[in-house]
Design brief:
The chain contains eleven helices and 15 strands. With about 325 residues, the protein is of the alpha+beta class.
Length: about 325
């Protein structure tokens, strides 16, 4: 028996068990589950530090709650901002850490506003395999001075590129603040060497993997990062960890010049923006709103992110 293709229609609907289509041939209806490809795609470019959460539970929740197939791109926030502004990539949503990269995107007209969705703080992660592990453990318990451990000869420290990635600058700012707090004027040089030090600088997704393997003794990290790698870390005083929204106002004379640009300390707040030239503007707007809701915030909390604490919306 033959059927005309004009008599076949498909109507999407959501059920408790997933997404289905209703196929109709004549008066006979039958349900079948739509393949993943049938879900609208949402391209999200996000700060590399978010990878474990974004590609795990958050991606699954976006599929379940918003019926979107999230495709993620993880990279340093500054590098992503430049790619977006230069039209090299065209994501639907951009999530940055610190205001600077997001303001680059906003000033270019690529987005109208950005919403704060979470915040974190700087920590020092260390390897349990390191020959300095017992000293780091003592520092984590407040029984030793963490910065003295980092100054020891032969210690292998990892960080990211301060030109491409905010975390690469943030560890420098943290140590600059520590020089003032502990009255140790050579602390930055003893710990990091030159600003661009090829022996210490690695891409953000690989730093903690190297630490986990024992290739490094310690590294810079955000508080959200060591957990998925089952790595211990040292918490830093609030005066040093860049968690305060007023960190720049509190340190007006602190700056770092690298790659021909001068930077100032910024709070470790994550911002999300739906981009103006999104191919899925409805999905992008829904996703940004969803990130501030209870389901997404619960996921953030499980991955050691802190709430944005009333941080302000960014606008151009």
């Amino acid at each position: 028996m033959a059927y005309s293709s004009e008599k076949f229609t498909r109507r999407k609907f959501a059920t408790a068990g997933g997404r289905f289509a209703l196929g109709t041939i004549g008066a006979v209806s039958f349900p079948f589950q739509l393949p993943a490809a049938a879900l609208p795609v949402l391209d999200v470019a996000y700060a590399g530090s978010m990878g474990s959460m974004m590609e795990g539970p958050l991606k699954a929740a976006v599929r379940s709650d918003l019926h979107l197939d999230m495709h993620g791109r993880a990279q340093g926030s500054n590098a992503l901002a430049r790619l977006i502004v230069g039209n090299t990539i065209r994501p639907d949503v951009f999530i940055s850490v610190t205001p600077g990269p997001m303001m680059t995107v906003l000033h270019s007209g690529k987005a109208k506003s950005a919403q704060p969705v979470a915040h974190t703080e700087m920590v020092i992660a260390y390897s349990p395999q390191s020959r300095f592990a017992s000293q780091f453990e003592a520092a984590a318990r407040g029984k030793a001075q963490w910065w003295k451990v980092l100054e020891q000869p032969g210690l292998r420290f990892g960080r990211t590129d301060p030109i491409a990635d905010p975390q690469g600058r943030n560890i420098i700012f943290t140590l600059m603040l520590a020089t003032q707090m502990y009255h140790q004027p050579d602390l930055v040089e003893k710990t990091l060497g030159p600003t661009i030090n090829s022996k210490q600088i690695f891409s953000e997704p690989t730093v903690l993997a190297r630490l986990q393997s024992g290739e490094l003794d310690a590294s810079s990290a955000y508080k959200i990062q060591p957990g998925p790698f089952h790595l211990p870390y040292i918490s830093l005083p609030r005066q040093l960890n860049l968690s305060s929204e007023g960190v720049r106002q509190d340190n007006p004379n602190l700056s770092l010049t690298v790659g021909g640009k001068t930077y100032y300390p910024e709070p470790l707040i994550y911002y999300a923006a739906a981009l103006s030239d999104s191919l899925n503007p409805k999905g992008a707007a829904e996703f940004v709103r969803w990130l501030k809701g209870s389901e997404a915030q619960s996921i953030f909390g499980r991955y050691d992110y802190d709430p944005p604490d009333g941080a302000s919306t960014l606008r151009a």
